[in-house]
Structure formats: structure tokens, C-alpha cells
Design goal:
- This protein is mainly beta and 365 residues long.
- The chain has two domains: 2-119, no CATH class; 132-362, Porin (Beta Barrel), CATH 2.40.160.
- 7% of the residues lie in helices and 63% in strands.
- It has helices at residues 2-16, 111-119; strands at 19-23, 28-37, 40-45, 49-54, 58-62, 67-71, 76-84, 87-91, 98-101, 105-109, 132-143, 147-161, 165-180, 183-200, 205-216, 221-237, 241-256, 261-276, 281-291, 299-310, 315-326, 336-348.
- It has a twelve-stranded antiparallel β-barrel. The chain has a six-stranded antiparallel beta barrel with strand order 1-2-10-6-7-5.
- The longest helix is centred in the first third of the chain and has 15 residues, at 2-16.
- The two termini are 54 Å apart.
């Protein structure tokens, strides 16, 4: 009788602690898998208690109890889980096994953890004044001698990102003053500003509206007001790279300092790209084409790009290029104006421009 009890105890213990995790260094851990995400795995062992292992150190996983697997599309599948060669296999009872690449699995939870996850109180929806981040760009040049010149470049950017929507604001400006023998000879300024609001109606598609306002004495442009909108696609969206492509329409109202005024309807097509090159350096690019629907053959192109290197949490060095091209400029003016600035960028709450995938409370339900 005693031997039978010991045998039953041994079999029961083997069943409870049958989950196995094999590490890349050859170590093996046996226990009950509690949870796993893209950063770590928690395992309840019989002798050591709760153990946490970095996900990057795991080579294989075998579970002998059903687990809940949540994919990037928020699909939850219950079954026995195996990890081999960078792919998860989920064997659900009475169904064919399902195979997922490791990078597409968001979380793995035990029965108890899944119940606790679903029972957690709903996260408070962020308010309109929450989640904002921004930056201030500065650059100054001064010369003294036969001619005195002063040039000031300022740029302000702000963004608010959530799973549902995205709002961006920007202002770029250049002020130039030159004088000879103490007499002011030329004061020139160019200001470019705008806003854009996006609403995600799925994980891949969004709708947007935007406004752009410009004043550019270099082009003889008193004012340009553009308003429009359209649809877009998140072609790439991960922790390091983001690529949006979009198209739509806009209305353009221009007034030049020679008295010329123009109104037109435009088609809009473009892309927004960002890439984290290193842990401190990133690059952004935006290219938008505006074929003129009211005057066939005419068009505008806007191009903006920055490369930014973070020096610390609140300070960075940037090189920014902003170009505006018009096929039909005012008489006597060139087609394009290129503004290149480099200098310090002061960052406020840069971490709020986060990747939503890294913040569970911000994910689309």
C-alpha cells in the first residue's frame, strides 16, 4: 500500500512539474509555466520557487498542461505549447495543431494567469491632454565685419499617440537679417506649420485629415493654406521601423506678394517613414506629392527628413532638411526652396512617442 501511494505521488508530481524549458546554454528547467511575453518567461519550480528567464535565452519549450497563447492579432488559442526552431506549435484538443512564428506571439499564460488577465479592471482611457511628447529645435548663426548677418532657425514638434488615434503638430521657421554699415538691407522669413490627425479603424488602415499653412518670402508667398484628408495603410509597424502610405485630396489657397491669388483642388499621395538606426540614432522621412486637379500638369512636392542622435533623455543633435517644390512658382522665383538646419533638439517626454506594442494598456482591444 505504501509503495502504491509513493508511486501515485511520484506520478502526480511529474504531471504538475512536467513543463520543460531548455536554455541556449544547455540548462534545463522543469516546472509550471506561469506566463511568457517578449521579454521574459516566469516558471514555478518545485525546489527554487518562481524563476524568471529572459525570452532571448530560451531555445525550446514543452508544456504538458494547456496554456493560452495570444498572438499579435489579439487571437487567444488554448492548447499544449511547444517552441522549436523559433516557432510555437499549439496543439488544441480536438483541433489541428497551429504554428506561429515566435515574433508573432504576444503572450503565453496559464489558466490562472489568463483568468486574472481577463478579470483585471479596464485601463482608464487617456485624456486629450495625456500621452503628448514634443521637441524644440534651435540653430543660430551670426557674422560680424563688413556685413552683419543674423539667422535664427526654430522648429517645434508635438505628437500624441494612442491605439485609436494619432495627432501631430509642427512649426518650422527661419528668420534672416542682414545689414551693411549699420543699415538693415534685407529681412527675410519663412514659416511652415501644420497639423495632422489620424484615426485607426483597424490595425492596418487609418483615415486622416490635415492642414498646412506656409508663409515664405523667399518664394514671394504671402500665404498658402492647404486642407485635406484621405485613407492610409500601416505598411510596416514594429519596434524599430514604421512606414505609412496614404492618398486623398486637398484644397489649396495661395496668395503671393505680387497680388496673384490661386485656388485649386489637388490629389494627395505620399509616405511617412521612420527607422531606429541604433539605440541613440533615428531617421524620419516624409514625402508628399500634390498633383493639381484644377490646372493639369502643375504639381507640388513636399519633402521633410531628419536624422537625430540622442545625447541624453532631454537633449539631442539633429540635422533636418525641408524642401518645397512648385512647378508653377510666382514670376521670377525658382521652383524649389530647401531649408537645411542643424543644431540642438530639446526633447520633452520623448518616451510618450512609444511603440504601442510595448505598452499593453494602449493596445487596441
Amino acid at each position: 500500500m505504501r509503495h502504491t501511494l509513493w508511486l501515485l505521488y511520484f506520478l502526480f508530481s511529474a504531471q504538475v512539474w512536467a513543463g520543460e524549458v531548455v536554455l541556449k546554454n544547455g540548462d534545463r528547467l522543469t516546472g509550471k509555466i506561469i506566463r511568457m511575453d517578449r521579454s521574459s518567461l516566469d516558471l514555478e519550480t518545485e525546489l527554487l520557487g518562481k524563476v524568471s528567464v529572459p525570452s532571448s535565452a530560451i531555445l525550446r519549450i514543452e508544456s504538458d498542461t494547456p496554456l493560452y497563447v495570444t498572438t499579435a492579432e489579439n487571437e487567444a488559442v488554448k492548447g499544449f505549447v511547444s517552441l522549436r526552431d523559433g516557432r510555437f506549435e499549439v496543439r488544441a484538443s480536438g483541433k489541428e495543431s497551429m504554428d506561429y512564428p515566435k515574433e508573432t506571439v504576444r503572450a503565453i499564460r496559464s489558466e490562472e494567469e489568463q483568468h486574472a488577465f481577463l478579470s483585471r479592471p479596464a485601463a482608464k482611457a487617456p485624456g486629450l491632454l495625456d500621452l503628448w511628447g514634443g521637441s524644440l529645435d534651435t540653430a543660430i548663426s551670426v557674422t560680424r565685419g563688413n556685413a552683419d548677418t543674423k539667422t535664427l532657425n526654430l522648429g517645434v514638434r508635438a505628437a500624441r499617440t494612442s491605439p485609436r488615434d494619432n495627432m501631430r503638430l509642427y512649426v518650422m521657421s527661419i528668420f534672416s537679417d542682414s545689414s551693411v554699415d549699420g543699415r538693415s538691407t534685407h529681412i527675410t522669413e519663412a514659416i511652415r506649420s501644420g497639423s495632422r490627425y489620424e484615426i485607426n479603424f483597424s490595425r492596418r488602415f487609418f483615415t486622416f485629415a490635415f492642414t498646412d499653412v506656409e508663409h515664405d518670402q523667399f518664394q514671394g508667398l504671402d500665404s498658402r493654406f492647404v486642407g485635406g484628408g484621405g485613407l492610409g495603410l500601416h505598411a510596416i509597424k514594429n519596434a524599430k521601423t514604421s512606414l505609412q502610405v496614404f492618398s486623398g485630396g486637398s484644397a489649396n489657397h495661395e496668395a503671393f506678394n505680387n497680388g496673384l491669388k490661386r485656388r485649386s483642388r489637388e490629389f494627395v499621395a505620399g509616405n511617412d517613414f521612420s527607422r531606429q538606426l541604433t539605440s541613440t540614432t533615428s531617421i524620419t522621412e516624409s514625402l508628399v506629392l500634390y498633383p493639381n486637379l484644377s490646372s493639369r500638369g502643375d504639381y507640388r512636392v513636399t519633402f521633410d527628413s531628419s536624422i537625430v542622435t540622442r545625447l541624453n533623455r532631454w537633449l539631442a543633435w539633429h540635422v533636418t532638411a525641408s524642401n518645397r517644390y512648385a512647378s508653377n512658382p510666382a514670376a521670377g522665383k525658382k521652383n524649389d526652396d530647401l531649408l537645411v538646419t542643424t543644431g540642438l533638439r530639446f526633447v520633452h517626454r520623448g518616451e510618450t512617442l512609444q511603440n504601442v506594442e510595448a505598452r499593453p494598456e494602449l493596445r487596441r482591444k
